[in-house]
Design goal:
Distance between the termini: 43 Å
CATH class: Alpha Beta
Helix content: 10-25%
Strand content: 15-25%
Order of helices and strands: HEHEEHEHEEHEEHEH
Largest sheet: 7 strands, mixed
CATH architecture: 3-Layer(aba) Sandwich
Strand order of the largest sheet: 3-2-1-4-5-8-7
Number of helices: 7
Protein backbone atom coordinates (compact mmCIF):
# COMPACT_ATOMS: atom_id res chain seq x y z
CA UNK A 1 0.00 0.00 0.00
CA UNK A 2 1.28 3.47 -0.89
CA UNK A 3 2.84 5.62 1.79
CA UNK A 4 0.39 8.32 0.72
CA UNK A 5 -2.66 6.30 1.74
CA UNK A 6 -5.14 7.09 4.50
CA UNK A 7 -3.51 7.67 7.90
CA UNK A 8 -6.18 5.86 9.90
CA UNK A 9 -4.47 2.50 9.37
CA UNK A 10 -1.48 3.75 11.37
CA UNK A 11 -3.29 4.51 14.64
CA UNK A 12 -1.48 2.78 17.49
CA UNK A 13 -1.39 3.38 21.22
CA UNK A 14 1.89 2.87 23.06
CA UNK A 15 2.18 5.84 25.42
CA UNK A 16 -0.51 8.14 24.02
CA UNK A 17 -4.13 8.43 25.13
CA UNK A 18 -5.52 6.86 21.97
CA UNK A 19 -3.91 6.06 18.60
CA UNK A 20 -1.75 9.19 18.39
CA UNK A 21 1.58 7.36 18.74
CA UNK A 22 1.23 5.50 15.47
CA UNK A 23 0.07 8.59 13.59
CA UNK A 24 2.95 10.65 14.96
CA UNK A 25 5.53 8.08 13.89
CA UNK A 26 4.03 7.83 10.42
CA UNK A 27 3.94 11.60 9.88
CA UNK A 28 7.51 12.01 11.14
CA UNK A 29 8.57 9.27 8.74
CA UNK A 30 6.81 10.84 5.76
CA UNK A 31 8.32 14.25 6.46
CA UNK A 32 11.80 12.75 6.96
CA UNK A 33 12.45 15.32 9.66
CA UNK A 34 16.00 16.30 10.53
CA UNK A 35 14.83 18.59 13.31
CA UNK A 36 14.41 16.26 16.29
CA UNK A 37 13.14 18.72 18.91
CA UNK A 38 9.65 18.80 20.42
CA UNK A 39 7.60 20.93 22.81
CA UNK A 40 4.56 19.56 24.63
CA UNK A 41 2.55 21.09 27.42
CA UNK A 42 -0.37 19.83 29.41
CA UNK A 43 1.48 16.52 29.84
CA UNK A 44 0.61 15.71 33.47
CA UNK A 45 3.51 13.54 34.69
CA UNK A 46 4.67 12.75 31.16
CA UNK A 47 3.88 9.04 31.28
CA UNK A 48 0.96 9.38 28.85
CA UNK A 49 1.66 12.08 26.30
CA UNK A 50 2.11 12.55 22.58
CA UNK A 51 5.88 13.08 22.52
CA UNK A 52 7.05 10.24 24.74
CA UNK A 53 7.08 7.99 21.67
CA UNK A 54 9.57 10.34 19.99
CA UNK A 55 11.76 10.58 23.07
CA UNK A 56 11.93 6.84 23.67
CA UNK A 57 11.71 5.42 20.13
CA UNK A 58 13.40 8.15 18.06
CA UNK A 59 15.80 9.78 20.58
CA UNK A 60 14.20 13.19 20.14
CA UNK A 61 14.77 15.78 22.84
CA UNK A 62 12.56 18.63 23.95
CA UNK A 63 10.61 20.53 26.55
CA UNK A 64 7.62 19.31 28.56
CA UNK A 65 5.53 21.64 30.72
CA UNK A 66 2.62 21.07 33.09
CA UNK A 67 0.92 23.12 35.77
CA UNK A 68 1.26 20.43 38.44
CA UNK A 69 4.16 18.10 37.67
CA UNK A 70 7.94 18.44 37.37
CA UNK A 71 10.61 15.86 36.49
CA UNK A 72 14.14 16.90 35.55
CA UNK A 73 14.90 13.44 34.12
CA UNK A 74 12.55 14.08 31.19
CA UNK A 75 12.89 17.90 31.16
CA UNK A 76 9.36 18.37 32.52
CA UNK A 77 8.94 21.85 33.97
CA UNK A 78 6.19 22.96 36.34
CA UNK A 79 4.61 25.99 34.68
CA UNK A 80 1.10 27.43 34.51
CA UNK A 81 0.70 28.51 30.91
CA UNK A 82 -1.15 31.60 29.68
CA UNK A 83 -1.11 33.51 26.42
CA UNK A 84 0.75 36.28 28.25
CA UNK A 85 3.67 34.10 29.39
CA UNK A 86 4.05 31.42 26.72
CA UNK A 87 6.68 33.26 24.67
CA UNK A 88 8.59 34.13 27.83
CA UNK A 89 8.57 30.43 28.78
CA UNK A 90 9.84 29.38 25.35
CA UNK A 91 12.67 31.89 25.71
CA UNK A 92 13.39 30.82 29.28
CA UNK A 93 13.90 27.21 28.18
CA UNK A 94 15.70 28.05 24.91
CA UNK A 95 13.15 26.60 22.52
CA UNK A 96 14.46 26.89 18.92
CA UNK A 97 12.59 29.32 16.68
CA UNK A 98 12.01 26.47 14.22
CA UNK A 99 11.51 22.96 15.61
CA UNK A 100 9.97 19.60 14.78
CA UNK A 101 6.75 19.09 16.70
CA UNK A 102 4.43 20.98 19.04
CA UNK A 103 1.72 19.24 21.08
CA UNK A 104 -0.84 21.22 23.10
CA UNK A 105 -3.38 19.91 25.60
CA UNK A 106 -4.21 22.38 28.36
CA UNK A 107 -7.97 21.73 28.13
CA UNK A 108 -8.98 25.36 28.00
CA UNK A 109 -7.07 28.27 26.45
CA UNK A 110 -5.36 26.15 23.79
CA UNK A 111 -6.46 28.31 20.84
CA UNK A 112 -5.34 31.57 22.41
CA UNK A 113 -1.96 30.20 23.49
CA UNK A 114 -1.30 28.61 20.11
CA UNK A 115 -2.07 31.90 18.39
CA UNK A 116 0.68 33.60 20.40
CA UNK A 117 3.19 30.84 19.66
CA UNK A 118 2.61 30.99 15.91
CA UNK A 119 3.45 34.68 15.82
CA UNK A 120 7.01 33.91 16.91
CA UNK A 121 7.76 30.22 16.32
CA UNK A 122 7.48 27.65 13.56
CA UNK A 123 7.25 23.87 13.70
CA UNK A 124 6.71 21.10 11.15
CA UNK A 125 3.94 19.23 12.99
CA UNK A 126 1.26 20.41 15.41
CA UNK A 127 -0.89 18.07 17.50
CA UNK A 128 -3.77 19.67 19.38
CA UNK A 129 -6.96 18.75 21.17
CA UNK A 130 -10.05 20.12 19.44
CA UNK A 131 -13.59 20.41 20.78
CA UNK A 132 -15.33 17.76 18.70
CA UNK A 133 -18.76 18.68 20.07
CA UNK A 134 -18.83 21.28 17.30
CA UNK A 135 -19.51 20.08 13.77
CA UNK A 136 -17.08 20.81 10.91
CA UNK A 137 -19.00 23.93 9.86
CA UNK A 138 -19.11 25.47 13.34
CA UNK A 139 -16.59 28.12 14.35
CA UNK A 140 -16.38 28.32 18.14
CA UNK A 141 -13.65 29.37 20.59
CA UNK A 142 -13.96 29.84 24.34
CA UNK A 143 -13.55 33.35 25.66
CA UNK A 144 -10.07 33.85 27.01
CA UNK A 145 -9.72 33.59 30.78
CA UNK A 146 -6.14 33.82 32.02
CA UNK A 147 -6.85 31.60 35.02
CA UNK A 148 -9.53 29.46 33.40
CA UNK A 149 -9.38 25.69 33.83
CA UNK A 150 -11.45 22.86 32.43
CA UNK A 151 -14.35 21.80 34.67
CA UNK A 152 -15.21 18.54 32.90
CA UNK A 153 -17.88 20.12 30.68
CA UNK A 154 -17.90 20.71 26.94
CA UNK A 155 -16.84 24.31 27.48
CA UNK A 156 -13.20 24.08 26.46
CA UNK A 157 -10.80 24.84 23.64
CA UNK A 158 -12.08 25.46 20.15
CA UNK A 159 -13.79 23.70 17.28
CA UNK A 160 -11.82 22.02 14.51
CA UNK A 161 -12.89 24.73 12.06
CA UNK A 162 -11.58 27.45 14.38
CA UNK A 163 -8.21 25.74 14.63
CA UNK A 164 -8.14 25.21 10.88
CA UNK A 165 -8.73 28.92 10.28
CA UNK A 166 -5.97 29.85 12.71
CA UNK A 167 -3.46 27.41 11.26
CA UNK A 168 -4.32 28.17 7.64
CA UNK A 169 -3.42 31.77 8.40
CA UNK A 170 0.07 30.61 9.38
CA UNK A 171 0.44 28.21 6.42
CA UNK A 172 -0.46 24.88 8.01
CA UNK A 173 -2.86 22.22 6.75
CA UNK A 174 -5.04 19.73 8.60
CA UNK A 175 -4.07 16.14 7.73
CA UNK A 176 -5.79 13.95 10.34
CA UNK A 177 -8.00 13.63 13.41
CA UNK A 178 -7.83 10.41 15.39
CA UNK A 179 -10.83 8.12 15.56
CA UNK A 180 -12.09 9.09 19.03
CA UNK A 181 -12.28 12.75 18.04
CA UNK A 182 -9.72 14.04 20.53
CA UNK A 183 -6.56 15.15 18.71
CA UNK A 184 -5.99 16.80 15.33
CA UNK A 185 -2.75 16.82 13.34
CA UNK A 186 -1.52 19.71 11.21
CA UNK A 187 1.63 20.05 9.10
CA UNK A 188 3.37 22.94 7.38
CA UNK A 189 2.00 23.49 3.90
CA UNK A 190 5.37 22.58 2.39
CA UNK A 191 4.67 19.00 3.56
CA UNK A 192 1.02 18.64 2.54
CA UNK A 193 1.83 16.79 -0.69
CA UNK A 194 2.81 13.83 1.50
CA UNK A 195 -0.88 13.25 2.26
CA UNK A 196 -3.68 12.26 -0.07
CA UNK A 197 -6.25 14.14 2.02
CA UNK A 198 -5.44 17.51 3.53
CA UNK A 199 -7.50 20.45 4.73
CA UNK A 200 -10.78 18.72 3.77
CA UNK A 201 -12.42 19.23 7.13
CA UNK A 202 -15.60 17.34 6.22
CA UNK A 203 -13.59 14.20 5.47
CA UNK A 204 -11.09 14.58 8.29
CA UNK A 205 -13.39 15.54 11.18
CA UNK A 206 -14.23 12.83 13.73
CA UNK A 207 -17.14 13.01 16.16
CA UNK A 208 -16.42 12.76 19.90
CA UNK A 209 -16.44 9.20 21.22
CA UNK A 210 -15.27 9.69 24.78
CA UNK A 211 -18.23 10.65 26.92
CA UNK A 212 -21.96 10.49 27.63
CA UNK A 213 -22.62 14.16 27.00
CA UNK A 214 -24.09 15.84 23.89
CA UNK A 215 -22.97 14.21 20.62
CA UNK A 216 -20.87 11.67 22.54
CA UNK A 217 -18.60 14.18 24.22
CA UNK A 218 -18.26 15.77 27.64
CA UNK A 219 -21.24 16.80 29.76
CA UNK A 220 -23.23 19.90 28.92
CA UNK A 221 -21.96 23.21 30.29
CA UNK A 222 -24.59 24.07 32.90
CA UNK A 223 -23.16 27.59 33.21
CA UNK A 224 -24.15 28.22 29.57
CA UNK A 225 -20.98 30.18 28.85
CA UNK A 226 -20.65 31.78 25.46
CA UNK A 227 -18.25 30.92 22.66
CA UNK A 228 -16.83 33.44 20.21
CA UNK A 229 -15.71 32.92 16.61
CA UNK A 230 -12.11 32.70 15.51
CA UNK A 231 -12.69 35.68 13.23
CA UNK A 232 -13.02 37.98 16.23
CA UNK A 233 -9.53 36.94 17.33
CA UNK A 234 -7.79 36.66 13.96
CA UNK A 235 -9.09 39.89 12.41
Amino acid sequence: MSVYSDLSQYEKKIFSQNGEDGITLEIVSRLNLKNSYFVEFGTQDGSQCNTRILREYKSWTGLLMDGTYENKDINLKKEFITKENIIELFEKYNVPKDFGLLSIDIDYNDFHVLHEILKKYSMDIIILEYNAFFLPNEDAVIKYDKYGMWDGSNYFGASLLSFQKLLNKFNYSLVYTEKKGVNAFFVKNIHKDKFNIYDDINKLYNTPKYGKGPRGGHKKDIKKRQFITSNTILK
